[in-house]
Amino acid sequence: MQSTHLSPSTLLYEGKAKQLFLTNDPQVLWVHYKDDATAFNGQKFDRLLGKGVLNNLISAQIFNDLADFGIPSHFINRVSDTEQLVSRVEIIPLEVVVRNVVAGSLAKRIGWAEGRRLQEPIVEFYYKNDDLGDPLLTENHIELLELATTHEITDLREQALKINDFLTKRFDKVDLQLIDFKLEFGRQSNGSLILADEISPDTCRLWDRKTNEKMDKDRFRRNLGGLVEAYQEVWNRLDKGKDA
Ligand code: ADP
Ligand code: MG
Q: Please, which contacts does 35-44 make with residues 24 or more away whose CB atoms are closer than 8 Å?
């Protein structure tokens, strides 16, 4: 953790898992990771003591690892157990999903069994819009809604696949299979697109390599229990495997 001359001021936005505060630097936001968990567009809710601390740790570690690998993100540094500083960006309202193994909504959409490995990773785009229930979008829809240009869609896809290559190996080294995950990107003042939001077991599906045990937010969605214990185990493994 680093000391900072910055401090949080006005609450800018409160989402389902995090709060964003303005700071004395207009380019920098103060993010607080909450213990709240929601699923099915907010219909299911719980407070899971310790989740915020773990997601803050895990997200910070992954953003640091990605930076070392040459992939920049909005992440600046962790400032407390549950808080981190990030660069303020204009979030593109798209959830960029990368899938390596069939799970969740893809199993339902195409009728393949959960757990079936895809020959190549696939990228999907969902509209980040709670009122519409975050629908799947085609590239034509994205252009129609003017959420991103053709060129930007290519950039998002390329960045997402590069992140997938890195994360798949990073998790594999600690005996976790990266099944799928969701990314958000933001537009910087110079127009370029940069990785933002969070990368944690809330936003990734992670299965234990040997047992296929779910170590992610599906423990909450599917009432499996033991979510905080699973996130703690993900953190322990990532922390131990840091310099591997
Ligand atoms: P949500 O309920 O929308 O998923 P979260 O609780 O995950 O919200 O809170 C994070 C919110 O902040 C998200 O809407 C996300 O798009 C936005 N966000 C993440 N990183 C940044 C950033 N660097 N600048 C501005 N907004 C951000
Ligand atoms: Mg979110």
A: 37/202, 37/217, 37/220, 37/227, 39/217, 39/220, 39/221, 40/221, 41/130, 41/133, 41/134, 42/16, 42/130, 44/220, 44/221
Spatial distance between the Cα atoms of 192 and 89, rounded to a whole number of angstroms: 10
74 CA closest ligand 1 atom index: 23
- Are 147 and 93 within 8 A, CB to CB? yes
Long-range contacts made by residues 16-19, C-beta under 8 angstroms, separation at least 24?
A: 16/42, 17/55, 17/198, 17/202, 18/198
Within-domain flag for 98: yes
Residue 129 belongs to domain spanning:
91-227
Same domain, 17 and 80: yes
> Tens of pLDDT along 134-180?
999 999 999 999 999 999 999 999 999 999 999 999 999 999 999 99
Ligand 1, atom 11, lies closest to the CA of 15
Same domain, 95 and 75: no
Q: Report residue 219 as tokens.
A: 């423990």
How many residues are there in the chain?
A: 244
- Residue of 55, 85, 91, 131 to test ligand 1 pocket, by largest number of atoms within 8 Å of CB: 91
Residues 59 and 115 grouped into a single domain: no
Statement to judge: residues 109 and 209 lie in one domain: yes
pTM above threshold 0.90:
yes
